[in-house]
Amino acid sequence: xxxxxxxxxxxxxxxxxxxxxxxxxxxxxxxxxxxxxxxxxxxxxxxxxxxxxxxxxxxxxxxxxxxxxxxxxxxxxxxxxxxxxxxxxxxxxxxxxxxxxxxxxxxxxxxxxxxxxxxxxxxxxxxxxxxxxxxxxxxxxxxxxxxxxxxxxxxxxxxxxxxxxxxxxxxxxxxxxxxxxxxxxxxxxxxxxxxxxxxxxxxxxxxxxxxxxxxxxxxxxxxxxxxxxxxxxxxxxx
Length: 238
Fold this sequence. Notes:
The protein is of the alpha+beta class.
């Protein structure tokens, strides 16, 4: 418990996060942008300029769930409708396609996960992925009510009836140790959950240190179904 912040683990200690993938803003390098809030993407000034993957993808339903927790369902619905009105293309594809379409001039900004930035920028010079990664600047958005960046996580738990419980606990304790957390950071460009572990150099340069949204993941999870219903209600993926 001392290694993993309280908002990134279950209150009962039965599960906890192992690494984080921040939901960040990809933007055209030519844009001059300051502090950015997730809510800002619904501003009409971005009409025809936003790219994003399907709203029903878990990365996005988690973000909508967090917005519901912060701002309430009515404002979350208004936000979804605003972003849908601002889309440059149908909400589809993957996160790297956001960078691809920014380079292609289809859109100016979009939401995607941080670790793809590392993957693209670590790709061989001259490849499509490298060109996509080099075409964008990356900002760490925050919630208007929360002041931190939303994260998706990889996590782990020990099954209640695990036959090798002691060994399982030892494995999980290792996975949040400093050496293992460094592996998460370096191998897949993810943010470590353990404080004091160095970031992957590419992520450190392109994005920097995170101020993570303090809302507990368990609280966000309570609104996942509600978020999925809202995505369908506004026809986000149509």
